Amino acid sequence: MVSILAFTFLFSSICFFLRITMTAWHFPIGTLAACALSYYFLSNHEKEQPVSILMLFGMTLGFVLIFVAMASYFYDISFDGQAYHMEAMIQMKHGWNPFYEQLPNTVNQALWVNHYAKGMETVGAAINCTFNTIEAGKAANFMIWLASFFFTLSFILRNQWTSVFKAFLLSFIIACNPIVLNQLLTYYVDGPMGALLLCLIILGLYILQTPRTVYFFMLFLTVFLLVNVKFTAVLYIAVFIGGYLIWALWKKNYVVAKQLWWTSVVAGLIAIVCGFNPYITNTVNFGHPLYPLMGKNKVDIIYALNLPAGFENKNGLERFFTALFSRTDNIYPNSIYPVEIKVPFTFNKIDLAHAPMVDSRLGGFGPMFSGIVLLSIILAVLLYLNAGKEAFIGNMTWGLVFIIISIIVMPESWWARYVPQFWLLPLTLLLTAEVLFKNRYQLLKICIYTALVINLAFCSAGFFFNMIVTSKINYQLALLKSSSQTVLVDLGESKSNRIRFSANHIPYRLADFHLQEVNEEYMAGSQACFIWPSHTDKSIKEPWILKTAGKWLPFMWQYYGR
Question: Which pLDDT tens digit goes with each residue over 467-495?
Fold first, then answer.
């Protein structure tokens, strides 16, 4: 799965260099290239039989098609997704070459479209071109998530640390990081980064145990893709690869250390070249590869736009612990509502409403996470008191240290989506307890498992809410299409919503009228609004799911959809 996305991005970048714009063939060619190289490694280095390899490829392609179908059904109703992630994809599909062209300021949020990393947007645009629906690109999120699950599962099973059932359960919970889970149906990139970081961590462990060529190859592709997903991924790659290098050198395994170094350096350099925009274009034009977040004339996106009210005079540590132990909420600057610290394991409708949100600023790992962290600390104390001399404890401690370092080096670690790897800290301790305390402290472990499952259930509500909003959008579009009249539309910051009108052959005219017309209505789950035409087909019935939601969940789903 990772190799398909990496080769799709690689091929797209080569085409951009050659001034070839995005086509319907980019994704299929990337897929074929990934299959061809994987076949080479599996047959020559892993000695797998051709029949087994072909069956594996068949299953992989089957998953890809299923994920495309799922992604195409659900709309991205996130703010950033509709504001600039999808905008970048639309521009690429319609001929924009980011290597040679800068979009004008007339393009919505052109600053971020022009200067942010574009790995996921490029892959999403390629999938969009192949299947001719912009929502299909979200299949990449599911592909990375599945890869992270199978990497984790195979590693636990290979080491025979737990029973098969617990291996599946632990791997599923580890892969279902709330940041990853909540962003699966959106074009936000923190979730894909979190899943790829999990792949990176597991691959590093594989290499330290058994340094095989195929693991270095997969590490290469993972680093290559991660660099182009999000700026902060570069920092996290340095922390975790640095940790593995130090470990290899400490164990005097100089051959592995050398291979790790060169694999990561070469992958990073090729990633920067293929990420010509933004890394090289930003450096040449603005003096810093991470512009506009750094360098001359940098833009502050935290204090002015995102820092919760009450955080202004707190230091980084205070913000981190305040966010961790507060209600799951999305308080903005200048909010009249105070940050509310809660008793761990308690929750109310505020927690439930924000648990599935893609970017909750407070308690972003879910309503149960603060309690899970506290129980994990108790588990850690028991581990060190009763098994402190075990070699596994030393290895686990090394991993925990670098997870903590990766959190510390992120200045805005209070915002959960910026540090998705924090989810791995209590899970690492739980896995260690399963290995060393198979039949001990069962009650404590059951409590942690239960809290984790409940926490993920709260976050998973986002799929249900999105299904309701998706039904609402389809209902609105069906009514608008039935009128055959030109619809007056104010897209606001959701400029990408124009695709929904054109894809459904609904004539529309752009205007500025928000909050001025009495007959206007929001497109569900977006900032766009429209004015109802004078005639629509009244025979089109409202979907049953909307009637049910309106009766039983009027607050929940409508809040989620805005």
Answer: 999 999 999 999 999 998 999 999 999 99
For residue 280, give both structure tokens.
Answer: 């090289």
Q: Which of 96, 222, 68, 174 is nearest to 430 (CA)?
A: 174
What is the C-alpha to C-alpha distance for residues 35 and 53, in angstroms, rounded to an integer? 9
Q: Amino acid letter at 167?
A: A
Given pLDDT bands bounded at 50, 70 and 90, which one contains residue 12?
Answer: very high
Q: How far is CA 257 from the centre of its chain?
A: 30
| 142, 184 Cβ separation under 8 angstroms | yes
Q: How long a stretch of residues is the chain?
A: 562
- At 562, the pLDDT band (50, 70, 90 cuts) reads very low
Q: What is the DSSP letter of 326?
A: B
Give the start-end residues of each E strand in 121-243.
Answer: none
Nearest to 177 by CA among 152, 155, 156, 154: 152
Q: What is the residue-wise DSSP string for 60-106? A: HHHHHHHHHHHHHHS----HHIIIIIHHHHHHHHTT--TTT----TT
H or E segment at 509? strand 508-510
Taking Cα atoms as reference points, which of 501, 556, 497, 548 lies closest to residue 527? Answer: 497
pTM for the full model? Answer: 0.94
